[in-house]
């Protein structure tokens, strides 16, 4: 019996894989099934607020493998499972991506033209507060053409983090001001 095309397989399996990933405590960022020679390549990209480490990838891999094995009739043959987390160059396209990028530096291309290099602050369902060129600014998601996190090799300046926290109406996050207290030792 010939196997269905990859798009149909992806559509059939994505809901059950998404449920399994959610039950394991993660978000399904991407799911794809492609033909790779005689086998299918099943690619699963997961994320979480605290990030995803190797141990978590192993847990998700086992969980997804069990679900795929239970739906082997859809795959109609052998498959290779690849479970990974998004790379640092993953675009910020959803509110949860912006939440996870809090305090990180981002390059933001605006729909109206121009680009911001800004530190990400508090985010909600409609937009994000950023610190760009020393100024707090609100950016609506609808005004963002593309945004990605920039890799930094040192801690963000404490004064920038404090300014973002003040804009959010809260006290600086632990570690932002680096005061040495009994509680932080």
Summarize the structure.
With 185 residues, this protein is of the alpha+beta class. It has helices spanning 6-23, 54-70, 72-75, 95-100, 158-167; strands at 27-36, 39-47, 79-84, 105-110, 115-123, 127-132, 135-140, 144-149.
Structure explained in plain terms:
By secondary structure, this protein is α+β, with helices and mostly antiparallel strands. It has two domains: 6-84, GMP Synthetase, Chain A, domain 3 (2-Layer Sandwich); 95-167, SH3 type barrels (Roll), CATH 2.30.30.100. Helix content is 30%, strand content 31%. The protein contains five helices and eight strands. It has helices spanning 6-23, 54-70, 72-75, 95-100, 158-167; strands at 27-36, 39-47, 79-84, 105-110, 115-123, 127-132, 135-140, 144-149. The strands form two sheets. It has a five-stranded antiparallel beta sheet. A hairpin with a 2-residue loop joins β6 (127-132) and β7. It is elongated and about 55 Å long. The protein starts with 5 loop residues before the first helix and ends in an 18-residue tail after the last helix. Mean pLDDT is 84; it is low at 171-185.
Give the arrangement of secondary structure elements:
Elements: H1 6-23, E1 27-36, E2 39-47, H2 54-70, H3 72-75, E3 79-84, H4 95-100, E4 105-110, E5 115-123, E6 127-132, E7 135-140, E8 144-149, H5 158-167
Parallel strand pairs: 2-3
Antiparallel strand pairs: 1-2, 4-5, 4-8, 5-6, 6-7
Helix pairs in contact: 1-2
């Amino acid at each position: 019996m010939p196997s269905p095309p990859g798009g149909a397989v992806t559509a059939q399996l994505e809901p059950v894989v998404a449920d399994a990933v959610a039950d394991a405590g993660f978000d399904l960022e991407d799911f794809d099934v492609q033909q790779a020679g005689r086998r299918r390549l099943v690619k699963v990209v997961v994320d979480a607020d605290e990030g995803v480490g190797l141990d978590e990838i192993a847990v998700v891999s086992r969980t997804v493998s069990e679900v795929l094995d239970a739906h082997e009739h859809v795959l109609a043959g052998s498959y290779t499972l690849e479970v990974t987390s998004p790379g640092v160059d993953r675009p910020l396209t959803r509110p949860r991506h912006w939440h996870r990028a809090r305090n990180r530096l981002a390059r933001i291309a605006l729909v109206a033209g121009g680009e911001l290099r800004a530190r990400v602050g508090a985010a909600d369902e409609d937009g994000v507060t950023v610190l760009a060129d020393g100024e707090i600014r609100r950016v609506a998601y609808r005004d963002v053409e593309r945004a990605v996190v920039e890799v930094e090799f040192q801690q963000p300046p404490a004064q920038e983090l404090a300014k973002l926290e003040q804009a959010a109406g809260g006290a600086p996050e632990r570690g932002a001001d680096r005061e040495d207290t009994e509680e932080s030792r």
